[in-house]
Structures are given as structure tokens and as C-alpha cells.
Amino acid sequence: MKRRDFFKTSALASTSLMIPSFLKGYVGKGLFSSRSGKNLVVIQLSGGNDGLNTVVPFQNDIYYRSRPTLGVDKNKVLKISDAQGLNPVMEPLRPLYDDGLMCIINSVGYPNPDRSHFRSMDIWHTASSSDEYLSTGWIGRYLDNHCEGCTPPYHALEADDSLSLALKSVEQNGFAMSDPKSLKRATNNKFLKAISNHDHRHEENVAYLYKTMIDTQSSANYLFEQSKIYQSKQYYPQTPFGRDLKQIAELITAETDTKIYYVSLSGFDTHANQKNQQERLLRQYADAVAAFVKDLKQNQLLEDTLILTFSEFGRRVKQNGSNGTDHGTANNLFLFGGKLKTPGFYNSAPDLKILDNGDLIYEIDFRRVYATILEDWLDADVKQILKGNFEKLNLV
Amino acid sequence: MSAVKMENILKMTAIEKIKHLYWRAGFGMSPKEWKNASNLSLEQAVNDLFDRAKSIQKIKAHVFEFPSDRPKNLSKEEKKAIRKNERKLVLKQNADWVRRMADPSESALLEKMCLFWHGHFACTTKGSKIANDQLNTIRKHALGTFGDLVHAMAKDVSMIRFLNNQQNRKNKPNENFARELMELFTIGRGNYTENDIKEAARAFTGWSSNFKRDFVFRKNQHDFGSKTFMGKKGNFNGDEIIDIILARPETADFIVRKIYRFFVNERVDETRVKYLSKLFYNSNYDIKKLMHSIFSSGWFYYPGNIGTKIKSPIELMAGTMRTLGVMFDEPTTLFFLEKALGQVLFNPPNVAGWPGGKAWIDNSTLMLRLNLVTYLFQAVDLNFKTKEEFESAQRNKRVRRIKAEVDLIPMVEFFKNDPQSSVFKNLSSYLLQANSNLELTDFDRFIIKNNQDDFVKTLILRLMSLPEYQMC
Hints:
- The structure holds 2 protein chains of 2 kinds.
- Chain A is α/β, with parallel strands linked by helices.
- Chain A has a single domain, classed as Alkaline Phosphatase, subunit A (3-Layer(aba) Sandwich), CATH 3.40.720.
- Helices cover 32% and strands 13% of the residues of chain A.
- In chain A, the strands form 2 sheets. In chain A, strands 1, 5, 6, 7, 8, 9, 10, 11 and 12 form a 9-stranded mixed sheet that branches. Chain A has a 3-stranded antiparallel sheet with strand order 2-4-3, with no helix packed on it.
- In chain A, strand 3 and strand 4 form a beta hairpin.
- Chain A is globular, with a radius of gyration of 23 Å.
- By secondary structure, chain B is mainly alpha-helical.
- Among the domains of chain B are: 3-52, no CATH class; 409-470.
- Chain B contains 20 helices and 6 strands.
- Chain B is globular and about 80 Å long.
- The two termini of chain B are 31 Å apart.
């Protein structure tokens, strides 16, 4: 059956806009304003980035002995401290480091580390211990606790087609949007708008679908309008990751009521022939982050922005038999921003002499980083979000 | 209540049960299957599903055969061309598979079991031969014994390559496969130690594949030494490791739990899982017996288990194709939808497979799901671009319209002379597994009523756009 056979009238093709009544729920309840507070941008390197070849301990013989073919050539390392230097493909980040806009925290991890991707990623996303299983994310719980019932879904926005566990919660999930235009187009359906005004009593999963539908409709128009306000003139690399960061910069500059942005770069699971793959990804990362920081700085927004980069784990100190590295434990973590209290290296290089079964031993629990960001940057009540007491760091 | 009415209710109930069975054990009902269901007892319907799964045809299409010797000095362009061709072939296999799921003349139960095991032994497969081989291995054992399936999957070339067993050599072990074998494929977390993983990895050293993409055991790479695994000591090889894992009842429990969550309910009923695990273990992991027992149980048809599962994207698409007789003009269309909805066959998100349930749903995937049938009817343009590179000939092109044909004639014919209230009641019951409290009047503004054909067509469109249609 063809289109023309189906429609004897064109009454069904719906294009008209209306302001739905459910939007009223968000008016006058005190929306967050990103301008009154601060932005957090979380960058996830998925697959377990090899931190030792990212920030290279170029003075350490054990490093070169453990990685006879994979070690980064001492002469090529970007030497930003006496002990450690950046992988040469990360050259664009060097000026940020020099200007005090970058902080590197070594040996971040957690007790009894798990070497499975999804489990360790879940631990990072949920901020759980390794023997504890949580179904909500640390950002999701922040949404639940910070402003009960009044947070718009896009308060935490992930630049992706789907939502990560980190942004999932009980009451209020974060919001996934890879592109404001297609999101708006998908929600522009008169029939769906009409049934969303219907009174519903449903089984749990069906109710969840209705709630998600209504939230999406209310958010789509807003984000679309926001996305039109500012078009960045900064050059960003033509990679999906570069485009994501550009979109985030534009939304931040447009004073969008989004406080947390979440974006991923994947492919770091380098069990075999690591060098090319990892360096290709690190180059993408460095190019895009450097452009992003420049863009925000030009708009005087870097002081209000904190960028966190993490990966679910580092990799074994010794390279494996296939010019790659296997899953490891503790790893380095990066912060960028205009208000860093400890720019440069936060702590000393990882100890390669004392290892646990060939793996680095963590020095700083990642939840201490979360606790610091939640309390010192987002003004949140950490006790409501993280289980246990995590001593804060001197970061922001 | 009169006797006639009572009989009607009982009859409807049987059809409702068969509809539930068809959705969970397969991909819903075609209009013809729905019509025929009124002549079947539930028992007949269950047995028919299993009868039709008996003769398993090997699939062999869209496969690139590699020469036995590695061709020397392939240029970069030649290698790229091979990879591109391989992607195309895997994509065609993908589309063929969904077509089989939707095709009432195929065995829906077999295809559903294959989908389950495909998600269980989750591998990203980029080559056409190894994709085809893996699917055939799964087809062969999907309703056989789980033990045979695990042994076969451990020698599956796609699995070996995906989990780096290719690089697992004596004195240079790669633990990837050994870890996932225990964590995800058999016994589950908490039932083994890190040392068990190290020892198991040694037992699988040398399990590799050659250039032709066939399994080979590389003797000189195998560690023949003594291993200590799960409290046992011996010169174990991989097969013996698997047998030790299968001897543990925790393995039956782990698999049954996953099957229960997939086929019955995400919320596990511990008593039933315990009963089924025992049955599974004592039958030497007979999958057919387990599934037959589930589909024959009274509790499987409890209201709490009906219409409470969120369809996976593949279930949604295959079911919609079955109901509407959808034919996609190109395999890339289907691939695009899989990608946008979050479930690409031969390409799960990671080795844990697709998480399922509410995890399918976020604002973006939900809107695409709700609009899916509208796009199929070509009522509005889609104009959608997937974020990552489109792995096909149409690389990175924006998809403006879903190119597909739908066949509504069976349903239009079926309802030709029925009053509109009865059409609404029957169509709702046919298309929706979850209860909807919408009345026909709620649809008034969005359907065409002055012409019976258009009434049926527009009502189908609207019912299939409801959130309730996302449930099975």
C-alpha cells in the first residue's frame, strides 16, 4: 500500500504546534538556572583507557621493562612534570596544562577492583562499592535529591541516543538527546499529545512509558529553542565526539537550564594492537576538549564549568602477548576548568614497584572526587547521594 | 450470565492465552494466526510451536568464503573493499533473520530461542562467514542441551575472536574469554575466584581460528600443564573446564533465572525459578523440556505476566512486520531502525548483551517507537540520522523516509461488515497486550469514521501508536 492510497484526507498529517497543559507543571516552580550555578561536563572514556600510555611515567624503568614494544618513546613524551608526560598525540592539551586549566589525579580507583567492563563501569556510574549493586546512578540520585519533583528532565543531559546508568534514578532520569532537531520532530505528533492529557492508571511499566512520553514532549521544544540561540564559531574536529562537545558548548552559552552534561568516547578496550587505536582516540579527545575549553573561555564561561574525564579502569602494567593490554585497576582522571584549586598534578605518579597481582593499587577512591564535585561544585548534600563517608579533595 | 456468554468468555480467554504464548514464545500473531487461534486449545498451540521447531534448516546465504591461503600483499583499498563487502553481507543476514522472525511460515519458537541465545552469548560479529556459522551453531542447539551449546560456543570463531582467545597462548594468557564464560555465559558472579579465571584461561590456550575462519586447536600454544580449577586438580583442557562448570547446580540456576526474566517476567519468582532450575539440572540441561514446562504452566498465563514486558526493538519490529505484513525495500532500512532503537543484531552493546526492560526506554527511543507505525504508513517523514557512522553503503546519510510497504488487506477484509464499536474492541484486543483504558471516543479526532476501510486503517495506526502497544 502506498502513501496516497492510505490517505483519502490529509487530516492525519500533524504538524501544528500547541502548548500542552503538562508544561504548566514546570512553570513557577523554580527552575534551575545554569547561570546562577555551575556546569559540570562528564566525559567518559569507555572500554578502559590505558592511563599509563596516556600520562606516561617516562622516568620509570619498570614502565619500559613492562612494555617493551608498547612503551611511549621517552623522547616523544610531552614532559609536563619531572616524572610524567602526556602522550604526544595530546599536544593540544599542553597549553591548557600550562595555563593551570587542567588537573591530573593519579591512581584513582576503589577497593577490591573489578576487572569486568560493565561491572566496573556500573560501579563508577552508581558510585557503589565493588560488592554492592545499585540500580541508580550518582547523577540520577543527585537529580532525585536536589530538587524533588521539580527538576526538568533535561537538568542532566547526555549527548547520546540512549541514557547511561549514571543518569538513571528512581524519580527523575536524565535526558538523552543526540540532536535537538530530530528530537523535536519525533515529539511533534498531535495524537500523542492528546493521549498524554488522558487520565491514566496503568501497570508500572506502562505508566513509565507514559511518564517518559510526557516528559519528552515538554523538553523537546525547550531544548530546540535553546539550541538555536548560539552558534559557535570555534573550530571543532569533525568527529562525533567533537560535534557533541560543540553542541554542549552552544547550550551552555545559551544559558540552558541544564546543569550536567554527559558525553562518551568509546573504543578504549585495547587487548590487541593497542598503539594505533588508543592514539587515534586520544587525539580525538584532546582536539575536541581543547576546542571546547577555548570556546567556553571566549564566552567567559570557563569559570562556571568543570570538566571531568574518567574511564572504568586502567590497564595492566605489563603489556600482553598481542601488543595490547588487559583489564587493570586504578587509573588517572582529568579535570579541566577555570577555577581549579590544584592545577597540575594533584598527587605523585603511580608506584610501579608495589603492585597487586600486576596491577596498580589505588590511592584515591573515585567517590572522593564525586563527593568533592557534588558538595563543592554542585552544592548538593553528599550524604543523600553517596553511601558512606568520603573525605573531600582540594579540587574546586 | 447465560451459558452462551460464559462460553464466549472462556473462548476469549483461550485466545488471550494463545496470544500471550505467541508473543512470548515468538513474535506475536499474524492476522491469519489470530483468526485460526479460535480453533485451537492452548495445549495444541503449545505443542504446535514445538513441532514446528523440530526440523532445523541450516542457513547459508550472504557468506563470503575466504580462500585457504592468506592472499599476499593486499592493498589498503582491497582490504577496505573486503571489509565493506563483509559489512553488507552481515547486514543482509541480519535483515533475513528479522524477516524469518516475522514470517508465519517459519518456526517462531526457534527464532525466539535463537534471539535469546544470541543475546546471551553476545558477540560483535563483523565477518559474514563467522556470523553465519555462529547463528547456525545457535540454531542447532537452541532447543537442545545447554551443555552442547556451551561447548560449541567455546569453539565458535566469532566468540574466539571477539573475546581475544585468538591471543590466549601458553605463558601469555589472555583471560577475556575465561572470565566471560563464567561471569556471563554459565555460572554467574560469586561462584568462582580470580584464580579460577587464571587457571581456566590456561585450559583454553591454543583454541584459535585460521584464516579461513574455521576453529583450530593450536597444540604448540596450548598449556598442557596441571591446573587447579574450582577445587579440582588435573591437566584440564577447555572442554573439561566447561564440564566442571556444568556439574555445578548454580549454573542451571543462573541460566533459568535469565530465561525466566526474558520469557516470563523481569521480576523473578524465586519459588518457580528454584523448581525450574532443578528440572533443568536433572534433565541434563534439556532446553526444550524447560521451555515446554514454562509454556505449559498455569502461572505463565497469570495476568501479572501478560502485557507487562516492554518489547525489545527486535520483538517490536518483527511483531509489527508480522501483524502488518511489512516489507522493507532495503535491508539498510531495518538496520537503521535497529540502530536507532538500540538493538542491532550481531552487534550487542557489550559481552553482557542487551540489558532489556526499562533500559530500552529513554526519551529518544520511546518517541521513535511510538512513531514507528506512523513512519511505516508513511504518514509523516522520519528525517532521522543515527549518531555513529552508518555501517552500510549509505554511510552517514540522513534517513528521510522509511521505505516499506504494508499489507492491511487481511484486516480490512476481516472487519468489512462489523459495527465500528466491535471493530474497536476486537482490534484493541488483537493489537494490545497491555490493558488500555481509552475509549473509541478518545480516538474520534484522529481517525476517519465515514468510510469503513479508512476507519480500520486509521484505527490500526492509532492503536499501534499507543504506549500500550510497546508491551507484550
